[in-house]
Amino acid sequence: MHRNRLFGGLILILLGTLFLLQTLGVLAWSVWTYFWPLVLILLGAWILLRPRLAGKQSLEVENLAIPLQTAGESSIEFNHGAGRLLVSGDAAPGQLLEGSFVGGVRHSVQQEGTLARVTLSADPVLTPLDIPWSGEEGLRWDVKLSREVPLDLTFHTGAGENRINLRDLSVKRVVLETGASSSEITLPAQSPFCRVVVRAGAASVVLRVPDGVAGRIEMESGLVGSKIDPQRFPFNGTTYETPGYDLAERRVEIKVEAGLGSIEITSG
């Protein structure tokens, strides 16, 4: 964070110097006429020169583990920024979640009876200037979730890459709200019923439905290119739906609300 303070200090020095010169009559023109162009030039120079001045930088890594304790189910919310988000079902026995967080993480846990509500958030004071411009990935979260309890998962993500594998988990609901990103989600293979909601901007989203899981898909999209397996999910005039959906032992119900980009729903 000290590099951001340095940049902010340079801006204040520049502004103060220009006002002083104008007050002394050295400058005949208005400070504001040239101030913002100079700020943009300084910002560009800072971005280009910082890696060379500071050497190759990397964000700090924070490790986090949250035990199951008395939780019989859990609702987990991910608030992730620019970078890469990896999620799988490989948490150790007795752990609700564990993972490594490049760039750090803020977390909260609230217990409501047997329900554990967990929120994971990127540092709100982390700005694009904190993300290394020397070849590093930026924010990278690698999170492992428990297979021992049913889960309700919400993902809020920005620009970046999301790889979410829920195949071996018991998941009741998945919500993905994402902007300009690339997301791949493998849905649960053993859950009796899972509801999936995707709200996407200019994004590429791939949903993989495991074999043996019936699907019902509702699309509300704008300028989106969609690719849905017509053999497995034939269109019935209203939805894309696996034949015999209502009688299937394992089902997913998918609703997609998208603006731009592409949506693919396939076997996986």
Number of discrete helical segments: 2
Q: What is the overall silhouette? A: flat
How many beta-strand runs? 15
* Mean of all residue-level pLDDT scores: 82
Give the proportion of residues in helices: 10-25%
Largest sheet: 15 strands, mixed
Q: Can you tell me the residue ranges where pLDDT is under 50 for at least 5 consecutive residues? A: 1-5, 125-136
> Span from first to last CA?
42 Å
Order of helices and strands: HHEEEEEEEEEEEEEEE
Classify the secondary structure makeup into a structural class.
Answer: alpha/beta
Give me the Rg, rounded: 24 Å
Number of domains: 2
- Beta-strand fraction estimate: over 45%
Pfam families: LiaI-LiaF-like_TM1
Keywords: Membrane, Transmembrane, Transmembrane helix
Domain LiaI-LiaF-like transmembrane region: 6-48
Protein name: LiaI-LiaF-like transmembrane region domain-containing protein
Describe the structure.
With 268 residues, the chain is an alpha/beta fold. The chain has two domains: 2-54; 63-267. The chain is 17% helix and 47% strand. The chain has two helices and 15 strands. It has helices spanning 2-23, 31-54, and strands at 61-67, 73-79, 83-88, 95-102, 106-112, 115-121, 139-145, 151-157, 160-165, 171-178, 181-186, 193-209, 214-228, 240-241, 251-267. It has a 15-stranded mixed sheet that branches. A hairpin with a 2-residue loop joins strand 5 and strand 6 (115-121). Helix 1 (2-23) runs antiparallel to helix 2 (31-54). The protein is flat, with a radius of gyration of 24 Å.
Summarize, please.
This protein is 17% helix and 47% strand. The protein is an alpha/beta fold and 268 residues long. Residues 6-48 form the LiaI-LiaF-like transmembrane region domain.
